[in-house]
Recover the amino acids of this structure.
């Protein structure tokens, strides 16, 4: 099974698909459809010292603008038909792209301790993990290791 | 009584989740490297994860000639507002570079530990793409974890443990460097963002090694992971007790022992007495506030 992400370049570079207003909400909302976000949510966003405040269903939210690290790009894909059979290939079509969005927390200020922010540490970890290691270095390490075990043997046999 | 019954009924209802009101198709949020996104369609494939052995998603890019791992971020109770719409799918998919040699390591360790085997004969029935991926790897890459047997064009290799452990040890070393440079938090329990800054790296050297080897270990078979930990001299218990001693004891009585612990954790040792008690309460509050936060390590568990 595979998933094909269709990335039409003309669409990717179209300023219209790039100008999307996004909010990452700290709530499960069971529904996919139109909503008056501007009228009932955006209108009530207050900003003070870089911290945004708003409420959702009577719960206070604290948020901030999250800029996607410049190595990456945020993309929205849309799946028109989800196949019932697990083995069928799926197709996701590009529906928009973004470089920043509003990140919201329920009842606590956004901070470095947020799981979402920590997720991004994975990027530098993965880069280090996938860096190439030369055969020379491997041989040197094996040499070092050999010496170390020989040294410890000598020590244990006085 | 009757009111209670109705409430429990609505909770048990099995179809509750399926009743999502959908007037729009399902949407998915991805974070993809800019260069990668600009190079055309992206094909996500299912492969066996070399650490867990379970099915997992990877991308083999023809244009950048790189392999990416798809990390799914799935915090409970998240959804998106996208312009004037609601998106119930609150997951995020993050694509990060992946070393395809880890696939080779998984299959060579499994199939070629005792005898050499040509790459084109290594198969995984559940993941038919495996052979193709392994065959794409260059010989000089595969030779970093194995030895060649037979003629060159046969491409038969035998797993070499010494080479592999050296290779993995160097990977761990590189990772520790990155963790330090990026000042990524490595201690097991995230206490609070304010708390992290106070940690000085002297006695966290061991934490770095344990954390980095844990990450490398999560990408290799379990048995090999234990051998790597032994190779790197990583012991399981020592620092966890150290960490415990860093936290104030549960009961708030004033003992000599407690004063000592406090002096260790803060840069300016607090004068004994009233102020000390204040500090403890603050720390407790911080711990309580951060009760739900996760360590980065949790994202590597598949």
């Amino acid at each position: 099974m595979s998933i094909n992400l269709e990335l039409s370049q003309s669409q990717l570079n179209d300023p219209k698909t790039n100008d999307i207003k996004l909010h990452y909400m700290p709530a499960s909302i069971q529904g996919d459809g139109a909503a008056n976000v501007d009228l009932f949510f955006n209108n009530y966003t207050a900003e003070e010292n870089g911290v945004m405040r708003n409420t959702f269903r009577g719960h206070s939210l604290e948020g901030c603008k999250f800029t996607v690290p410049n190595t990456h790009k945020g993309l929205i894909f849309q799946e028109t038909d989800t196949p019932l059979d697990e083995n069928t290939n799926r197709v996701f079509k590009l529906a928009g792209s973004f470089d920043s969005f509003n990140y919201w927390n329920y009842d606590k200020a956004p901070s470095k301790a947020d799981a979402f922010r920590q997720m991004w540490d994975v990027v530098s970890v993965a880069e280090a993990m996938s860096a190439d290691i030369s055969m020379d270095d491997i041989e040197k390490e094996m040499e070092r290791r050999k010496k170390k075990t020989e040294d410890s043997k000598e020590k244990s046999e006085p | 009584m009757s009111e209670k019954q109705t409430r429990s009924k609505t909770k048990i209802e099995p179809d509750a989740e399926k009743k999502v009101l959908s007037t729009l198709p399902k949407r998915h949020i991805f974070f993809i490297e800019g260069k990668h996104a600009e190079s055309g369609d992206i094909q996500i494939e299912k492969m066996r994860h070399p650490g867990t052995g379970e099915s997992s998603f990877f991308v083999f890019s023809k244009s950048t000639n790189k392999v990416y791992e798809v990390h799914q971020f799935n915090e409970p109770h998240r959804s998106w507002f996208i312009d004037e719409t609601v998106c119930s799918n609150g997951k995020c998919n993050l694509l990060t570079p992946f070393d395809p040699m880890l696939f080779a390591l998984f299959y060579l360790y499994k199939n070629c530990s005792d005898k050499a085997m040509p790459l084109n004969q290594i198969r995984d029935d559940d993941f038919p793409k495996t052979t193709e991926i392994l065959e794409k790897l260059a010989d000089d890459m595969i030779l970093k974890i194995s030895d060649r047997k037979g003629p060159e064009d046969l491409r038969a290799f035998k797993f070499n443990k010494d080479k592999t452990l050296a290779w993995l040890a160097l990977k761990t070393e590189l990772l520790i460097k990155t963790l330090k440079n990026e000042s990524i938090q490595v201690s097991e329990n995230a206490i609070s963002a304010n708390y992290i800054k106070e940690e000085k790296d002297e006695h966290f050297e061991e934490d770095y090694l344990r954390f980095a080897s844990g990450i490398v270990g999560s990408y290799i078979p379990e048995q090999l992971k234990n051998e790597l930990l032994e190779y790197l001299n990583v012991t399981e218990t020592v620092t966890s007790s150290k960490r415990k001693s860093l936290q104030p004891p549960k009961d708030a009585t004033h003992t000599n022992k407690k004063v000592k612990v406090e002096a260790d954790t803060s840069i300016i040792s607090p004068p004994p007495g009233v102020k000390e008690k204040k500090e403890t309460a603050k720390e407790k509050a911080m711990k309580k506030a951060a009760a739900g936060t996760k360590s980065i390590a949790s994202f590597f568990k598949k």
About this structure: Chain B has a mean pLDDT of 77.
